[in-house]
Amino acid sequence: MAFPWAVDPGLADRIDRIARQRGVTVAGSGLNPGLIFDALVLTALGLAWDVREIRVRRVVNCSRFSPTVLRRLGFGFTETEFRQGAAAGAIYGHIGFPQSIRAVAGRLEVPIERLEKAIEPLIADREYPMDRMTVSAGQSAGFRQTVTAVSGGKPWFTAELIGHAAPEQAGFEREDTIDIEGDAPAHLSIRPGCDAQLGSAAMIVNSMRRVVEAPPGLLTVADLPPASPTLTPPKG
Amino acid sequence: MAFPWAVDPGLADRIDRIARQRGVTVAGSGLNPGLIFDALVLTALGLAWDVREIRVRRVVNCSRFSPTVLRRLGFGFTETEFRQGAAAGAIYGHIGFPQSIRAVAGRLEVPIERLEKAIEPLIADREYPMDRMTVSAGQSAGFRQTVTAVSGGKPWFTAELIGHAAPEQAGFEREDTIDIEGDAPAHLSIRPGCDAQLGSAAMIVNSMRRVVEAPPGLLTVADLPPASPTLTPPKG
């Protein structure tokens, strides 16, 4: 729902049309999609004179995720199993990158020729216990995923996600970074990287007001003001 | 113009009323106010569960500023001259912090009891040549300014600006940082800190589209989507 045109443009346009007819606003937003790879990128792009390339990288501690989510992200497989699962489409990492990238590219009016997707296992050299699943040495305790949007024959937006049972112990600093390259480059970082669960919940709750206040239609974070919370009790 | 209610609420309301009557949008936005101390803060606040305190700190290289601006910022004075000038209101640093703070507080519906302002000279231990002014040893080659908004008797939003002829040589990393303290803290940094001239110009140009597209009235960055540029030639 963050950018449904990425999946089914006809259906997205239909949702938009019906929402306008009924005078309601429809929007999808969380942490990712919703902030790190899109709203924060679009906000930082205010600094841009031109944009040669955008790279966003996020490192997530996945130790509190459910086993169902962990399996589709690619946890607990041998390298062979992981690659077979990825080829078969059973292991696919995070699914929202095309949505974030197309929300940004759409707002900037940059044509995307294709998306290149890759996912690699991060094989554990020891046991990694998580909240609800334990990974043994020799199994994947994480993954490195990239989705690259190509424009003009060159990488224009690369989204990279490293998910791990214990990122710091595997040598990954828990950090979210945005690098905008161009005439006036901008480099943002959030440290430690945003907590997946707390951040997603906050983004959804904090988005309620901006969605209620927005004009009708199917909107994205490119159309909406920031998802800032209200801190006093609601009035009236 | 970033938040004119901070200076004259009656006049701001009048501009808003006339803008609505005439069907036009009025907004002020640049780098500061406009991004670092307000739009980026509001965007990061999407992550917040509660907000105990906000601190934003910016380090600026002022070497390319004009002598007129440098004098009112407090460059080229002895410590005594600086303190006298500050007391007399002739040296006052950056003027937009109340606007940024009130734009954020207003959106979050946090009542601000008072603003506490302070400015201190950074005295040079050697000569600092700038583009259009040279500061001698013993004179101010920069300043440290804070504006603190007090809510509930405690500091709620502290804006800090360090301006210097050569920040790195004086021991200040050129970095803009946003620290949101609360149940789900968030710590953002931009390195190197945004270039004052390039960033302001970009923010103004990149804001044109969002202002044209916005509903009528006097709006702030709390009401507007991100100031993202259009990268393809305009159509039609």
Topology:
Two copies of one chain form a homodimer.
Chain A: H1 9-22, E1 25-27, H2 39-44, E2 53-61, H3 67-73, H4 79-88, H5 97-108, E3 114-123, E4 128-129, E5 134-135, E6 140-151, E7 154-164, E8 176-181, E9 186-190, H6 196-213, E10 217-219
Parallel strand pairs in A: 1-10, 2-7
Antiparallel strand pairs in A: 2-8, 3-6, 4-5, 6-7, 8-9
Number of helices of chain A: 6
Rg of chain A (CA only): 19 Å
- Helical amount of chain A: 25-40%
- Largest sheet of chain A, described in full? 6 strands, mixed
Provide the structure class of chain A: alpha+beta
Could you explain how this protein is built, in words?
The structure is a homodimer of 236-residue chains. Chain A is an alpha+beta fold. The first copy, chain A, is 28% helix and 27% strand. Chain A contains 6 helices and 10 strands; from the N terminus they run H-E-H-E-H-H-H-E-E-E-E-E-E-E-H-E. Chain A has helices spanning 9-22, 39-44, 67-73, 79-88, 97-108, 196-213; strands at 25-27, 53-61, 114-123, 128-129, 134-135, 140-151, 154-164, 176-181, 186-190, 217-219. In chain A, the strands form 3 sheets. Chain A has a 6-stranded mixed β-sheet. A two-stranded parallel ribbon of chain A has the order 1-10. In chain A, strand 6 (140-151) and strand 7 form a beta hairpin. Chain A starts with 8 loop residues before the first helix and ends in a 17-residue tail after the last strand. In chain A, 45% of the residues are buried. At the A-B interface, helix 2, helix 5, strand 9 and helix 6 of A face helix 2, helix 5, strand 9 and helix 6 of B.
